[in-house]
Amino acid sequence: MSTLTAEPAAPTEQKLMDQAELTAEARRLKAERRALIIAHLYQRPEIQDLADFVGDSLGLSQQAAATDNDLIVFCGVHFMAESAAILSPQKTVILPEPKAGCPMADMVTPDALREMKAKYPGVPVVAYVNTSAAVKAESDICCTSRNAVKIVEAVEGDTVIFIPDRNLAHYVQTQTRKKVIPWPGFCPTHDRIKVDDLRRMKESHPEAVVLVHPETDQAIVDLADKVFSTEGMRRFVRESPAKEFIIGTEMGILHALQKDRPDASFYFPSGDEQICPNMKSTTLRKLVVALERLEPRVTVPEDIRLRAKRALDRMLAVQ
Predict the structure, then answer these.
(1) Is 9 a residue whose pLDDT tops 60?
(2) Which of 41, 176, 199, 319 is 20 to 30 A removed from 123 (C-alpha atoms)?
(3) Is 316 left (phi over 0), alpha (psi -120 to 50) or beta?
(4) Residue 255 · residue 280 · CB < 8 Å
(5) CA-CA distance, 250 to 284, in Å (whole number)?
């Protein structure tokens, strides 16, 4: 397991500062600490605007590893900060909100995975990066939503165990002849996108291109024009001549999409149901406190880190 340490609230928490003051203070501390701030596309707009890099989870960790900054402030959820710590063990990795977890990642544990591996001896385990470091350490190879099909195809044998997302597993199954044994996990936010809402949205905006994440239910995927990771959606929107898009993923991506395409309109079929409370739990105030105190720090025990890194390295070797 990784560890996450925190100290009592810093003095800034006692001050009444508005957003402009907090932003200015965050920029000052960022420069003073030579910190690299990275933010997932689902983060609050004001957090994204402060970040050096905005993107998806693994890509951010790789960018962090490639820089010479010794301090990484990861505005995301816990497994993402762990990935940064796995790839950059010599650096200090800070997660501003220690309670920012991922319900889907929590749906698989090392012990439960070992039981499943015993049930299917010799079957390789493909772990979505949305898993803890300890679970990655029990897996054979990792994947992202973007490369999941490619990774499953590259693994030896005609059967794989796929953890923890049943929806992504099902999507992969439709794209491969291999047998995919799914773990029964899911993303609550993506699971709340409703088929009826999407149908109504398509009727209201018949010219809109429907883009959905593969973490959504298969019934949602079946109604989509394209299935993409978050970065894939952003790339497609940048290059598309279309002016309207229906988006089937967490609403935080809207900020980046609007910056990329101010001429386009974006619709979210299930509205506020498409908000992840964990992703929104990082605030400017918490970011400033983290930069002041250099806490909470995320670390991964070396034995787990090396085994988890092996699974990540195997994935990167396939790309």
Answers:
(1) no
(2) 319
(3) alpha
(4) no
(5) 20
- Each residue of 94-116: pLDDT tens digit? 999 999 999 999 999 999 999 99
Backbone angles phi, psi at 199, to 5 degrees: -60, -45
Residue type, 183: W
Domain ranges of the chain: 3-102+279-301
Pairing of strands 297-299, 3-5: antiparallel
Provide the token pair at 278.
Answer: 């964990």
Half-sphere exposure of 152 (CA within 13 A, CB side): 29
Question: Is the sign of the CA dihedral 243, 39, 30, 7 positive or negative?
Answer: positive
Contacts of 169 (CB under 8 A, 6+ apart): 162, 180, 181, 182, 183
Token pair of 230, please? 């978050």
How many CB atoms neighbour CB 24 within 10 A? 12
Decide yes or no: CATH 3.40.50.10800 for domain 3-102+279-301: yes
- State the chain's maximal CA–CA distance in angstroms: 59
Separation CA 151–CA 180 (nearest Å): 12
CB environment 166-196: b (16+ within 10 A), e (fewer): bbbbbbbbeeeebebbbbebbbebbbbbeee
Q: Which residue has the tokens 């501003």?
A: 96
d(CA 247, CA 254): 9
| 13 pLDDT higher than 90 | no
CA distance 154 to 109: 25
